[in-house]
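TA notes, week 10

Several of you asked for a full example with nothing omitted. So below is the full record: structure tokens for the whole chain, then the designed sequence directly under it. When grading your own attempts, check the secondary structure regions first.
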């Protein structure tokens, strides 16, 4: 065929442009799961969220945010050193959507049962539009229950961290309508292997006023303009083991290790060699969970 032969331009195997009036209602599995569980009360809100997220302008924002990486602004227009990280306006639009849905903190204060299930459904809907903004959203969600333990600190910043009006301004957290917590760690390979994190926290303050100095090389900071950082230093910072909880989630190719003795033997024709390790982990206080989707996909009954 000639280069100008239009018959060679056939696009019959190309997916049509994405168009959905409602991302939630278009997912019957999600609708059914929510409807049968403790979060059935959130159906109407999820329908409204699904309609809002189906707006093509948000998908355009996701594309623009991907095409416009953050920019370091060292000086302002008058030559003063500012060291600001500038994100694309589309990024802020997407984060504002996360805040309106209450993803950073609402579930911790919701009085209805099934609040975390409702949040998970909202989270999945947002992931269909943009996943990058879910990083600081998730870190904020994880940090809230920890910060609430520090009553004096929470009294000053709590209203911002549970706020649902995204506030990208460069001001003290206590003065904002919404706050973000990012992640911080030090690891020579730039976050590629979290088992090799080298961050250490050394106490420099008193017992009444605990202050720590963080040590490490090659810092990796997610969303540099976040209002706070969650840094994993745990035992090095003197946190007692009684204040820590360790969870293991088994999924993917590892799923069979969680099978009971009888089921494992039926499938693999020999005893499950992993049961002793699982018993020891549980004896040490580790909570072990198995991904339900993986069990279903593999047709296993644990």
């Amino acid at each position: 065929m000639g280069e100008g032969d239009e018959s060679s331009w056939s696009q019959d195997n190309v997916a049509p442009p994405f168009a959905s009036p409602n991302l939630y209602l278009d997912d019957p599995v999600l609708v059914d799961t929510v409807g049968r569980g403790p979060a059935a009360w959130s159906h109407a809100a999820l329908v409204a969220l699904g309609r809002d997220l189906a707006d093509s302008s948000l998908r355009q924002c996701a594309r623009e945010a991907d095409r416009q990486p953050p920019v370091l602004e060292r000086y302002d227009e008058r030559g003063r050193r500012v060291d600001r990280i500038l994100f694309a306006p589309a990024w802020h639009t997407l984060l504002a959507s996360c805040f309106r849905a209450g993803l950073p903190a609402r579930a911790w204060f919701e009085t209805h049962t099934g609040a975390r299930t409702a949040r998970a459904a909202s989270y999945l809907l947002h992931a269909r539009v943009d996943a990058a903004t879910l990083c600081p959203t998730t870190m904020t969600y994880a940090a809230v229950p920890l910060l609430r333990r520090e009553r004096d600190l929470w009294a000053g910043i709590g209203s911002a961290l549970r706020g649902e009006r995204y506030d990208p301004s460069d001001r003290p957290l206590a003065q904002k309508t919404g706050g973000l917590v990012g992640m911080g760690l030090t690891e020579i390979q730039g976050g590629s292997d979290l088992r090799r994190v080298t961050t250490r926290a050394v106490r420099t303050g008193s017992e009444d006023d605990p202050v720590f100095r963080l040590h490490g090389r090659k810092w990796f900071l997610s969303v540099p303009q976040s209002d706070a950082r969650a840094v994993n230093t745990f035992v090095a910072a003197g946190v007692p083991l009684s204040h820590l909880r360790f969870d293991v989630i088994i999924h993917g190719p590892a799923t069979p290790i969680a099978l009971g003795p009888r089921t494992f033997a039926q499938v693999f024709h020999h005893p499950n060699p992993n049961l002793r390790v699982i018993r020891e982990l549980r004896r040490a206080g580790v909570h072990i969970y198995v991904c339900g989707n993986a069990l279903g996909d593999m047709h296993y009954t644990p």
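The mean pLDDT is 86. Use that as a sanity check on your answer.
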